């Protein structure tokens, strides 16, 4: 029985989260298939990329113009059609925004429950996922014949490359559902690494003001770091919600997380507590962030950030 | 047009949740319960659509134990027209909740469902898209902005790479991000009025849906906690530690 990984991609490039989903798939079995659904321009290149990831044994390539928009209904229906052919024990993707919409929709089509955002596989039907902002872990047992899962990407390392050739098979697309349309797409243009894959992340809380941002950006550029923020910073309008870290935003596990002017509410810590090293810089020595930080400095961010820039 | 807004009652997200000593469940002593903040945003968006004359009626629904009635009362005080309580004696899986909500949406002839992205706490992110699939409706996920013109629903949606604008015709389901609408305050007179309203209750088993679940909680565990580290005097000491102790910033 095989494992199906739904590929995630944009503009002809496979997302790193798919490499991580393939690592998780490999923990479930050795026959790992990747399903690529893309427009004709990118489908072949994406299938090649998927086939060159270590552990992948087969790539299904489905090309159609309507996959350009990657609508939930189209993606889920196509995956369902493939699962209906039989031979699969699991289907999974990451719990990215895309995974968060596609996998539960697919579960609805299949009339089954699923396990979302799992961080650990403990057996063929037993999965661990964090709840209550990571304060607790729940172990869930899934009884369905085909188990649908989404994995927390930061909990699994990306799979490496393989050199042997993998069979890429094309399948005919279903006709588009035509129920929804995508009118516009806006991407972020930034030269910095993405929050989800940066080795170093700088987090900013309310101890940071709008006019501190140039210094924070300078520090981020020096470290090749991504910038994330707390909800309060988003609500103040300092940056957009794309940079939100925490229970309601992105969940990360970089090598180094530097929390600047962040007090450390549980909702924020939920998004960063799996970082390898946490550094906290805060004026308030009582700030809860110091309880979980490996290194702390009590002091004014307005002085410490420029000092760090000078030292690095 | 009638809007259905499913409401979940959750532990106040600012509270730190602990397990009972025997790990059989959550220690609910001193916990405060609130309306799920995502659902609150969904309800506010629904109320605004009604005030704009786009919707005619807002129905809230909650599944669970008797306490849900209190949360539903708050929805009436905020301005919902009707509330429905689905009584369930045991914890249901997201799929069973989605089946119950489908039964209500169909029975009540709703054309739009606004549902919070996730229940704070369980953080499952499941019921919304699942319900759309069960209804055979399009799913407009993670909406940060919402407009309706005629029968067209348009949303600006959060994505992994930024945002996108999606459009679908009614009937449709919108999964709501917390920032979609800032919930209004409940006034005392409205709360007093809502207290006098009778909220109809229906037993989950009577809605004619399959109550079989295929996921079960096997165990609850405490998360390993990080311990407090070392306080350093200044940024120079920090850079020194990260360089020497962890090999960071080496190649700069």
Give a structural overview:
- The complex is a heterodimer of chains A (312) and B (252).
- Chain A folds into two domains: 2-170, HUPs (Rossmann fold, 3-Layer(aba) Sandwich); 200-311, TPP-binding domain (Rossmann fold, 3-Layer(aba) Sandwich), CATH 3.40.50.
- The N and C termini of chain A lie far apart (52 Å).
- The longest helix of chain A has 14 residues, at 97-110.
- In chain A, the strands form four sheets. Chain A has a seven-stranded parallel beta sheet with strand order 7-11-6-1-4-5-12, with helices on both faces.
- Chain A is an alpha/beta fold and 312 residues long.
- Chain A has helices at residues 16-28, 40-51, 72-84, 97-110, 213-223, 231-235, 266-272, 301-311; strands at 2-6, 9-10, 13-14, 32-38, 56-63, 88-94, 115-118, 120-123, 126-131, 136-142, 147-151, 167-170, 180-187, 200-204, 226-229, 256-260, 277-282, 295-298.
- Chain B is α/β, with parallel strands linked by helices and 252 residues long.
- Chain B has one domain (2-207): 3-Layer(aba) Sandwich (Rossmann fold), CATH 3.40.50.
- Chain B contains six helices and 13 strands.
- Chain B has helices at 37-51, 68-78, 94-107, 127-135, 188-196, 235-246; strands at residues 2-6, 9-11, 33-35, 57-64, 82-87, 112-116, 139-149, 152-159, 162-169, 172-176, 201-203, 215-222, 230-231.
- In chain B, helix 3 (94-107) crosses helix 4 (127-135).
- Chains A and B meet through helix 3, helix 4, strand 7, strand 9 and strand 10 of A and helix 3, helix 4, strand 7, strand 8 and strand 9 of B.
- Strand 10 (136-142) of chain A pairs antiparallel with strand 12 of chain B.
Q: Can you describe this structure in just a few lines?
A:
The complex is a heterodimer of chains A (312) and B (252). Chain A is α/β, with parallel strands linked by helices.
């Amino acid at each position: 029985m095989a494992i199906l990984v739904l590929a995630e991609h944009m503009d002809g490039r496979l997302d790193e989260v798919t490499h991580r989903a393939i690592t998780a798939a490999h923990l479930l079995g050795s026959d790992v298939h990747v399903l690529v659904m893309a427009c004709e321009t990118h489908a072949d290149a994406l299938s090649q990329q998927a086939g060159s990831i270590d552990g992948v044994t087969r790539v299904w390539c489905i090309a159609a113009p309507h996959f350009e928009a990657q609508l939930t209904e189209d993606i889920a229906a196509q995956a369902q059609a493939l699962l209906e052919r039989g031979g699969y024990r699991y289907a999974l993707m990451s719990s990215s925004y895309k995974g968060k919409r596609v996998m539960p929709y697919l579960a609805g089509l299949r009339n089954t429950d699923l396990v979302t955002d799992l961080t650990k596989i403990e057996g063929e039907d037993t999965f661990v996922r964090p709840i209550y902002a990571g304060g607790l872990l729940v172990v869930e047992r899934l009884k369905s014949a085909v188990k649908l899962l989404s994995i927390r990407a930061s909990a699994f390392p990306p799979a490496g490359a393989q050199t042997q050739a993998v069979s890429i098979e094309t399948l005919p697309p279903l006709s588009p559902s035509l129920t929804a349309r995508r009118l516009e797409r806006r991407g972020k243009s930034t030269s910095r690494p993405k929050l989800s894959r940066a080795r170093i992340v700088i987090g900013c809380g309310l101890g940071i003001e709008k006019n501190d941002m140039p210094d924070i950006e300078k520090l981020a550029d020096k470290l090749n770091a991504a910038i994330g923020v707390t909800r309060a910073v988003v609500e103040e309008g300092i940056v957009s919600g794309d940079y939100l870290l925490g229970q309601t935003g992105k969940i990360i596990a970089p090598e180094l997380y530097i929390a600047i002017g962040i007090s450390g509410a549980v909702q924020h810590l939920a998004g960063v507590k799996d970082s390898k090293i946490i550094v906290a810089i805060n004026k308030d020595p009582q700030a809860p962030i110091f309880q979980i930080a490996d290194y702390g400095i009590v002091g004014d961010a307005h002085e410490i950030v420029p000092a760090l820039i000078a030292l690095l | 047009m009638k809007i259905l807004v499913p409401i979940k009652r959750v532990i106040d997200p600012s509270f730190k949740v602990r397990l009972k000593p025997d790990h059989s469940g959550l220690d609910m002593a001193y916990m405060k319960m609130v309306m799920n903040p995502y659902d609150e945003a969904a309800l506010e968006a629904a109320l605004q659509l009604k005030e704009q004359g786009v919707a005619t009626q807002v129905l809230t629904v909650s599944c669970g134990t008797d306490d849900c009635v209190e949360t539903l009362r708050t929805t009436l005080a905020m301005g919902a027209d009707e509330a429905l309580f689905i009584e369930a004696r045991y914890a249901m899986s997201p799929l069973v909740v989605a089946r119950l909500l489908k039964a209500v949406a169909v029975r009540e002839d709703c054309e739009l469902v606004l549902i919070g992205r996730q229940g704070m706490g369980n953080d499952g992110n499941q019921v919304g898209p699942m319900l759309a699939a069960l209804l055979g409706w399009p799913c407009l996920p993670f909406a940060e902005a919402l407009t309706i013109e005629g029968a067209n629903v348009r949303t600006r949606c959060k994505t992994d790479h930024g945002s996108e604008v999606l459009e679908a015709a009614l009937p449709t389901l919108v999964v709501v991000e917390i920032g979609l609408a800032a919930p209004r305050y409940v006034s005392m007179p409205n709360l007093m009025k809502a207290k006098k309203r009778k909220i109809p209750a229906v037993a989950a088993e009577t809605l004619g849906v399959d109550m079989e679940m295929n996921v079960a909680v096997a165990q609850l565990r405490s998360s390993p906690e990080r311990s407090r580290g070392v306080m350093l005097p200044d940024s120079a000491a920090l850079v020194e530690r990260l360089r020497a102790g962890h090999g960071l910033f080496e190649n700069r």
